[in-house]
Amino acid sequence: MPSLTFVAHEVHRHGGQERAAAEVLTRLAPEVDLTVVARVCELPGVRVQFSRVAVPGRPAVLSSTLFARAAARAAVRAGSQLLQSIGAAAPEADLITAQFCQAAFTARFGGLRGGGVLKGLLQSVVQARFVKDERRAYGAQRLRRVIAVSTGVARELEEHYRVPPARITVIPNGVDHAVFHPVDASARRALRHRLDLPTDRCLALFLGGDWERKGLRDAISAVAGVPDSNLVVVGAGNQAPMREHAARVGAAAQVRFAGMSREPQSWYQAADFLLFPSRYEAFSLVTLEAAASGLPIVAHAINGTEDLITDGVNGFLSEWGADALRAHVARLRDDAGLRARMGAAAAEGSQRYAWDRIAAEHLRVVRECVA
């Protein structure tokens, strides 16, 4: 049985890359001698050695530096055959899973996630440090393989970090179909009653945090002026500027901020489609979960969505801007048959992203690296 030390800041079943790690490691644990080095590791019932790294979570730039140093020492103590890291969580690793490309995000958007001038300056400094850390990790002599979670991330690693294509294997994120699946019309109505959602309106769903990067402003603007349509926002963020924006564009009565939820599947199953105009992703779990739940997806052609969505079949790959998004919102509102056909195609296409299959591909790469 190969031995593997896996380094990540956090491993648990809420969040994005944290949940992806938890799903894969749960399935790898019976096949490898597994040690997890992390600040937080929540894998109940999974056979794993947990080496806790006790560093503060904030500020991010200090936390990442302290974590990397402590994680490197913990990995040496573990003495496994293979060291795997999420991004630059470990300064040097044999195998890296790329769930983001900081250099690509910086090149396209300056690494900025919204806010005032001072906040922007701080974000620029922090982002420069994150890019430096990733450049070192991907340039380490020790590195044997990289798992990119989308074809777009694979391109970015080649372009920005000069990772040889022969070292990169694309293995997407996955979805748990036992949790995320379509429901019939009566179950959808019952969910809307339970969640205090309107039953007589077309309901768009936005789910996630980091609202500026993920395009919530454009999502709000897209439903503005489309009668009989509502937008439900599930996730944590600064509501005040978004509420002000909704009022400014005339959508205050159409937008509901639902806050965080430990049952995202209920919100997917209650909605009519996912409206997710993110500027940058690696491969968002939100889009995979929405597809598995039978929702058409309106998004831009970015990493992940370009792999998942066939335009006009299981969703729309929209042009940039609120006007283009609004046209797709109106079309889906007006055509229940189109929503049903796209939702069925989305659910069918999601089957290839089952976590069991994804984890089996990860295990194959682990065994190849050990061999």
What is the CA-atom radius of gyration, in angstroms?
21 Å
Quote the distance from N terminus to C terminus. Answer: 11 Å
Find the structural class using helix and strand composition.
alpha/beta
Approximate helicity band: 40-55%
> What is the domain tally?
2
Tell me about this structure.
Helix content is 44%, strand content 17%. It is α/β, with parallel strands linked by helices and 371 residues long. The chain folds into two domains: 3-174 and 354-370, Glycogen Phosphorylase B (Rossmann fold), CATH 3.40.50; 185-352, Rossmann fold, CATH 3.40.50.2000. The strands form three sheets. Strands 5-3-1-6-7-8-9 form a seven-stranded parallel sheet, with helices on both faces. Strand 11 (229-234), helix 8 and strand 12 (255-259) form a beta-alpha-beta unit. Helix 1 (17-28) packs across helix 14 (355-370) and helix 7 (216-223) crosses helix 12 (322-334). The longest helix has 22 residues, at 117-138.
What labels describe this entry?
371 residues, 6-stranded parallel sheet, Rossmann fold, 17% strand, 14 helices, alpha/beta, 7-stranded parallel sheet, 44% helix
Q: What's the quick description here?
A:
The protein is α/β, with parallel strands linked by helices.
Blueprint (SSEs and pairs):
Elements: E1 3-7, E2 10-11, H1 17-28, E3 33-38, E4 40-41, E5 49-52, H2 60-78, E6 82-86, E7 95-98, H3 102-109, H4 117-138, E8 145-148, H5 151-161, E9 168-170, H6 185-194, E10 202-207, H7 216-223, E11 229-234, H8 239-248, E12 255-259, H9 264-270, E13 273-276, H10 285-292, E14 297-300, H11 305-308, E15 315-318, H12 322-334, H13 336-349, H14 355-370
Parallel strand pairs: 1-3, 1-6, 2-4, 3-5, 6-7, 7-8, 8-9, 10-11, 10-13, 11-12, 13-14, 14-15
Helix pairs in contact: 1-14, 6-9, 7-12
